[in-house]
Amino acid sequence: MTARAAGVALGIAGAGFAAGQLASVEAGIVLALLAGLVGAAILHQVEARRVRRLAERVNGMVGDGPDRRSVQVGGTGAWRQLEIAINTLVSAYQRRGARIEQERPWRRELVDSLVQPALLFSSGSRLLSANDAARSLLGIPIDAENVTVVQAVGSAALAEAVREVQTAQRPVIIDLEHGEHHLRASVSQVGDETLLIITDRTRELRVEEVRRNFVVNASHELKTPVTSIQTLAEALEVSVKDDPDRVIALTNQLSSEAERLARLVRDLLDLRRLEERGPLERAPVDLAELARRVVAEQISRAEQRQVELSVDAPERAMVAGVVGDLEGIVKNLVANAIQYNRSGGSVEVTIAPEDGMQRVRVTDTGIGIPQQDLGRIFERFYRVDTARSRATGGTGLGLSIVRHAVERHGGTIHVESLLGEGTTFTVRLPIGSPD
User: Fold this and answer.
1) CA-to-CA distance for 68 and 134, rounded, in angstroms?
2) What is the pLDDT of residue 386?
3) Which one of 50, 93, 267, 314 has the largest count of C-beta atoms within 10 Å of its C-beta?
């Protein structure tokens, strides 16, 4: 073999050895990569199982399950920090839950103790508690539990208010009508529950309406005699010069209108005084003697209308009260009985003891009161026959004064009437002496 041939053979052998060595290195790298992937997969599975166990433990701790032990994550570094953070968070959550559970009975006791209608709803808008006032106002059956807001209160507006409070976490106040009632509802969040407190504003709004009507009616009633007085004064001024014979008639009319105005002002002041619920300076009053005196004063007026008056009373009928107010009760009832009677009719006043009370009954045979008006005749300025009342100088306050005077003395008043046949007013006042 020549030297050249030997060199070539040696080169070929070296190249084969290098190729074999390279293949071995590549195989090692592949095996290392495979080992790394397998290790990563195994590590991933381990970490996945650890995370899954962690999730299960946390869910068990914050859920409804009985497991309340600390979370054991295992590992070091970040895993240890995560374990501490989770246990701290869960502990705070559990303390809050325990506090809420302790508060639940207290909230229901609070609802039951409130004077105002009150209801308590869960976070799922289900009825948890309603006090007696709420059940009475809203008509909630005593056995109604876990019902929805709409089922409990019968109002979509209230249900929406509860939903808004639960969503926005801020109080809401709404006004609404429920049947014949005008309600104001205050809805607020208490812990994880919703408290609904209701105020019945029906009476308040009616009082406001009565006051507005009173101002309007009083202005109208005062305007009539004032206008008449102004007109008569102007006519009188002219007549003094041009028609002296007319002066006396105008003067009489002027006096009549002035008396009508004075009577209206006097009645307004009496009504205002009676509406003030202050103490009464009571004194012994003989109702029998008082009734006989009032009837005697009305005889002349009754004769003008051809109405017969009579009194049926014992020798004495004692009560404790304010003589002026008691006289006003009898006088107004007798005057009305004469005014709304018919020619040839009669008015009878009877007094008798009854169940610890003195019963005063005024019966007439007059025109009667329509049934639809019976519930309103004690209102201020309410008139069944407006034209007749004003023609006779009535102020429209008499029966309102009577009702307030009777109630101030601890009594009651009742009316019965048949249209075209007559009316009976029955007043009951306590028998007694001043304290």
Assistant:
1) 40
2) 55
3) 267
